[in-house]
Design a protein that fits this description.
single chain; 5 helices; Pnp Oxidase, Chain A; seven-stranded antiparallel sheet; three-stranded antiparallel sheet; alpha+beta
Length: about 170
């Protein structure tokens, strides 16, 4: 194991590439709906139910997420790497490119065919360096009917699924 005493941004990025994470797309309503791919999604509390995700202030989706009272979190299936790539591509109309979505409560975009979806009320935003941590309370949820479906995972700079890893 290589040990370094200085954890600069490049070393930090290399360290975190060793952490595998589920891939989600977070969407927010607005005059122009916004969506982005994230691996920073996590459960926070069971009582009350709370989740969180982080977003860089420089992200194109940040203004919509900053203003949103409601967001949707979509856990992607192993078959949806193309969705993850679409919502992480800059300079395109992500919703027109993706196509499989409909407006949900409060106008929040809901993606089709996902492993799980939570529609959440934003309860707090916490500034954290060049990102903001968004805490949200799930209000509704849906689960993919196919119990054999597995999540898309991001590890060491690329997408993976649990079937290929097994």
């Amino acid at each position: 194991m290589t040990v370094s005493s200085l954890v600069d941004s490049e070393h930090f990025r290399a360290l975190l590439r060793r952490h595998a994470a589920a891939v989600v797309v977070v969407t927010a309503p607005g005059e122009q709906p916004a969506g982005f791919t994230a691996t920073s999604f996590t459960s926070v509390s069971l009582d009350p139910p709370l989740v969180s995700f982080c977003l860089a202030h420089s992200a194109s989706a940040w203004p919509a997420v900053e203003a949103a009272d409601i967001v949707a979190v979509h856990v992607l299936t192993e078959e949806q790497e193309h969705v993850a790539r679409t919502f992480s591509t800059r300079g395109i109309d992500r919703f027109a490119t993706h196509g499989d979505w409909e407006p949900g409560p409060g106008g929040v975009p809901l993606l089709g065919g996902v492993l799980a979806r939570l529609v959440c009320r934003v309860v707090r935003r916490v500034e954290a360096g060049d990102h903001t941590i968004v805490l949200a309370a799930p209000e509704t949820g849906a689960v993919h009917d196919d119990r054999a479906a597995t999540p898309l995972v991001y590890h060491d700079g690329s997408y993976h699924n649990l079937r290929r890893a097994a």
